[in-house]
Automatic annotation (TrEMBL):
This is acetylornithine transaminase. GO terms for biological process: L-arginine biosynthetic process. GO terms for molecular function: identical protein binding; N2-acetyl-L-ornithine:2-oxoglutarate 5-aminotransferase activity; pyridoxal phosphate binding. Its cofactor is pyridoxal 5'-phosphate. Pathway: Amino-acid biosynthesis; L-arginine biosynthesis; N(2)-acetyl-L-ornithine from L-glutamate: step 4/4.
Amino acid sequence: MAFRASLRLAASAARPAGARLYSQAVAVPTSSAASVRVTSAQIQRDAALPNPDPAEDSASAALVRDHAPFMVATYARPPPVFVNGEGSYLWDIENRKYLDLTAGIAVNSLGHCNPELSKLIAQQAKTLMHASNLYYNPWTGALSKLLIEKTVASGGMHDATAVFVCNSGSEANEAGIKFARKVGKVLDPSGAKHEIVCFGNAFHGRTMGALSATPNPKYQAPFSPMVPGFKVGVYNDIESLKELITPETCSVIVEPIQGEGGVQVADEEFLVELAARCRKVGALLHYDEIQCGLSRTGTFWAHSHLPKEAHPDILTTAKALGNGFPIGATIVNAHVADKIKVGDHGTTFGGNPLACRLAHHIVSRLAEPELQEAVLEKEGLFRDGFAMLQSQYPNLIRQVRGRGLILGLQLTEDPARIIKAARERGVLIITAGTNTLRFVPSLLISKEEIEEGLRVLGEAIEATRE
Ligand SMILES: Cc1ncc(COP(=O)(O)O)c(C=O)c1O
């Protein structure tokens, strides 16, 4: 007991000035079963690791035992229970501190609990949170206008015209898929122009339309049959485009960088040829930048550097748009917007003034050139560290992929042990694709934090070599 208590004190001593202890700031519902018995084996293990996963007899485990039976088991979670966040760090209920290289899966681009965002939420929550899409409010339109202005100014989607605001990435893609079907019907009232092309290893979401464009048997098989009319192509395969995309195609949905699929980057030539084929058959091009967009690659959109001919007709975003507050958006050009009529699509919560005011602030900050330049410098630090690790462990690290602060290390083995070893040394990392470690930290991560992350990653790899 005494040893545990001193561990906790050490963890809280490491907190930055002004950081709160969870017990002072958060009411955590705990069960009465939180009494702690410590075995000598646990004491030895805890002594060897800065952040050992909470043990079976910890307060964390007691809380999980109390709650888990009431939660649909859609996720397999590790033992820590997070209650506090600040910048690039998270704290669990036992006051262990973690450097978060996941940023809530590429969501918290401005870090956890960014003070300006917290202030804005509080202000708007006292002003107006929701009045429905039946009425105008000042923020849905302001966000839409800003997204169009920043998109065009960034050199991306030059003809971006209008925005549909919703609540998540899946919903943004769902709107994109519906809009494409509608455009196909307007262009060919026979209904023949309804096919949607997607690519292997894509991830576009879990709702039935977005899932139908996510050709991973793990996600699709339990819920088949999928929505009809979806075709799957090979990512980066220019040769197959002619056969794949035909006059029956109403749209092609593609991630310029596949996130969940393993941080796979589309070749510029592939996207240029893809766009050319779409134009040729009158199909829309839909870029899903839900994970890779909003300056994560060092440009406002991952496609911003592409020539105009390769710009999309539909562009979807979510994740970092709300920095943790749920929001998504579907950006379209006039060719699409003109064909969508009142009543074609809708949402109760989407576009509410609270989410939109927040996103308006976030978009203006993420569009700053200084932030984007810093992302590229930080990419350099990660890449230098990865190169060193690759030279140390050539049989483990096969490839480094990605751009900006969406980076992947392709390993030759299941990364689960490395992920756990890193977590138990105070660093959170997630996986992607097959045996890929994915790094999507806050875009405000500091040089020192990157160095800390790389050092701990090295230690975690070393600890897992037999
Ligand atoms: C590229 C991409 N599209 C769509 C989605 C789905 O977004 P959401 O989970 O917000 O529905 C994700 C989520 O990981 C994503 O990475």
